[in-house]
What does this fold into?
Amino acid sequence: MNVKIYLIVSGIIFAVWTLGQLARVTMQIPVQVGTLNIPIWPSFIGTILALALCIWAFSLVRAGRP
It folds into this structure.
């Protein structure tokens, strides 16, 4: 697979992840795994992490280097 295509696909996946985490934070969507309720605060970390990876992927595409 071409590195540029890989970076674009990765950037899109991280953008979708960012939007999902941001939606959970802003709309206070509850998440439950079995009997465990997942608090909202990990979504703040997930939003920042996903956004950073998205920006990184697209900046590498823009720079023209892997």
